[in-house]
Write a structure and sequence with these properties.
- By secondary structure, this protein is mainly alpha-helical.
- The protein folds into 2 domains: 75 residues, Orthogonal Bundle (Endonuclease Iii, domain 2); 102 residues, Endonuclease III, domain 1 (Orthogonal Bundle).
- 58% of the residues lie in helices and 0% in strands.
- It has 11 helices and no strands.
- The longest helix has 18 residues.
- The two termini are 18 Å apart.
- The chain binds iron/sulfur cluster.
- The site of iron/sulfur cluster has 14 residues, from helix 9.
Amino acid sequence: MGGNNTKIRFLAKQTYEALSTEFPDSTCSLDYDCPQNLAIRGILSAQCTDKRVNITATDLFGRYSDMKLIAYEDPAVIADIIKPCGLTVSKTRSVIAFARKMTEEWGGTVPNDVDMLMEVPGIGRKIANLIVGEIYGTPAVVVDTHCKRVMRRIGITDSDDPARVEKDIMKVFPEEQWIKIGHLSVDLGRKYCTAKSPKCDECPLASFCKRRI
Ligand code: SF4
């Protein structure tokens, strides 16, 4: 992390306050009504829009009310349903692997354990953190493409590596803000701090953003 720690902590405080004011209702952009529903949506979300994931997952869960049914379904049938989300082969394998873990090893529950969740192919640290944070309220930082870009531009991190960005965020934001700062940075990244043409003139962080000043 560049700069001194006190300065970056103050930057984090300013960032959190400004983003909370700008996006008071910030929340997870994936719809879900149970832990397994969020996990499957997380798997489907790789290189796919949240809108498409939400439509496809609603279709999947409309056909299968129980993870046991997904666990032992013909993979070709699951592939056909989740095809609109892309990366069909790997996502089909992940969805079925997750359903089998739940059925055969986790007693029908989703564990509040990042390492256990990451045993499922297709569930990386980002999705595992999303699950434990959203479902169980376990402090965890979800570093997606928006979060990574925004945190680097603001000056919270100087890294492009998600694991380093996660650590840099954890150093300067209080634990109780970890889940929310992920959602807030996605909102900022979508509305102002877009990848190609950031709208710095309108951005609520413009007065202290490292890239801007
Ligand atoms: S001022 Fe510009 S670069 Fe900085 S966070 Fe806002 S949009 Fe992004």
